[in-house]
Amino acid sequence: MFDVLLNYIEEYSGAVMSPMEVELIRSSFRVKKIRKKQLFLRAGEVSRYCGFVVNGSLRTYTVCEKGAEHVVKLAIENYWVGDLGSFSSQKPSVYNIEARENTELNIITRAEADRLILASPAFAQTLRIMEERNAISAQFMLKAYNCLSAEERYIAFEERYPLLFRRFPSHILASFIGIQKETLSRIRNSQCENIPELK
Amino acid sequence: MFDVLLNYIEEYSGAVMSPMEVELIRSSFRVKKIRKKQLFLRAGEVSRYCGFVVNGSLRTYTVCEKGAEHVVKLAIENYWVGDLGSFSSQKPSVYNIEARENTELNIITRAEADRLILASPAFAQTLRIMEERNAISAQFMLKAYNCLSAEERYIAFEERYPLLFRRFPSHILASFIGIQKETLSRIRNSQCENIPELK
DNA sequence: CGATTCTTTGAAAACAGTCAATCTGTGTGG
DNA sequence: CCACACAGATTGACTGTTTTCAAAGAATCG
After folding, report:
1. Which residues 57-96 on chain A approach chain B with CB closer than 8 angstroms?
2. What are the backbone angles phi and psi of residue B115, rounded to the nearest 5°?
3. Which of B62, B72, B143 sits opposite A62 (nearest CB)?
4. Domain boundaries, chain A
5. Which of A70, A142, A178 has the CB atom closest to B141's CB atom?
6. Tens-digit pLDDT profile for residues B147-175
């Protein structure tokens, strides 16, 4: 049930956990299954849970005033989902998080997480790494949006998130990259032109 | 010397500090003065110090491959400067931080900050708020870059950062907003057209 | 099989970027 | 005090990338 999560925490914290610590973590999480197309978090609600993806996939997106959806995060196995901002401040989130496939999560509430941070150094360390990664990811996206053209951005994102590129349909990826699905399609086709064997 | 900083910490932590805590903070920081155009942090170096702006102003920017500069943060009085990512990981930063005016800072090293976090709840709380704000700020910029046109972005940034708009020249603001200085100029002029009295 | 989801293509339009020239104001040094 | 340099702001004309709209084709699922 929680083996994937426990492995993940051991690996990322770089610590070997005592049986007690393992049990503590195990008892702090619950299993939650979400069907394809269902929401794990709805904009306007507080992000009560933070979730670790055991299997499946999800997208985090906002809806602009104009009604367009904008994907800000994609998640597959071994990713965390939840709006950390809303999770820690307990204010309403602006994000929707939707399952793209039937998904299994290990979830934890804010209160349980607070307790676990104090009790488990490995979990605390894992959270820190996760926050740092979020910050780095935001940096990457900001720079990409500002400095790169649509095509350069496509290449940069593909290089950075190869697993996601194999997993999500192109209109989702397009929104994540910040371009139109039509533009993405054209970029992909024009890329073949650069590979002689495929001509 | 450190009164502005101490006021700031009291206000943001919402705590009244004991004379001992005050003294602890006071002794952890040093005063640093930077002349206009000098760098507080150079890309490639580790962000050894985190600084609180007592007076003056600075810009944090990266240089893209193409050589263009991209401003990611502007700071005036009561802002913090330093690359938090580099500061906490002690890895080289990708940012340059340049003083736009002669500037006075209260600076602290990583080691001193770590010690102070443990010793001063008020300081620890202030840091947490600061990190949360950084995350919110990154969210705002990402959404603005993705959902808004140049003009809408201009308006959104102006509304969010009125003080910065009064303080920095327009080519710096343009880079911060993610548009060209010429475009900014045109937007500003076209705005007058919407105000009958100025016609 | 029908329905939904996803992808591709073409043509036209718009937005913003680029380049180049000019104008303004400010401050510095002779 | 003037002349000069420098940083900043504005304008016009042009260019090109990307978006938008519309339509149709391909793939997948129940």
Report:
1. 62, 64-66, 68, 70, 72, 84-85, 88-89, 94
2. -65, -45
3. B143
4. 3-125, 148-199
5. A142
6. 999 999 999 999 999 999 999 999 999 99
> Position B62: which residue type?
T
CA(B114)–C1'(D30) in Å? 58
pLDDT tens digits along A95-113: 999 999 999 999 999 999 9
Structural Rg of chain B based on CA atoms:
18
What is the count of residue pairs from A and B with beta carbons less than 8 Å apart?
66
pLDDT single digits (tens) B96-151: 999 999 999 999 999 999 999 999 999 999 998 898 899 999 999 999 999 999 99
Please tell me if residue A132 touches chain B, with a CB cutoff of 8 Å.
yes
Give Cβ neighbours of residue A128 (< 8 Å, ≥ 6 apart): none
Q: Name the residues in B158-187 having a C-beta closer than 7 Å to nucleic acid strand D.
A: 169-172, 181-182, 185-186
Chain B residue closest in CA terms to A138: B138
Whether the pTM exceeds 0.70: the reply is: yes
Q: Give the CATH number of domain A3-125.
A: 2.60.120.10
> Which pLDDT value is given to residue B15?
84
Half-sphere exposure of A165 (CA within 13 A, CB side): 12
pLDDT digit string, tens, across residues A30-87: 999 999 999 999 999 999 999 999 999 999 999 988 889 999 999 999 999 999 889 9
Encode burial over B27-56: b for 16+ CB neighbours within 10 A, e otherwise.
Answer: ebbeeeebeeeeebbebeeebbbbbbbbeb
Choosing among 3.20.20.60, 2.60.120.10, 3.30.200.40, 3.40.190.290, the CATH entry for B3-119 is 2.60.120.10
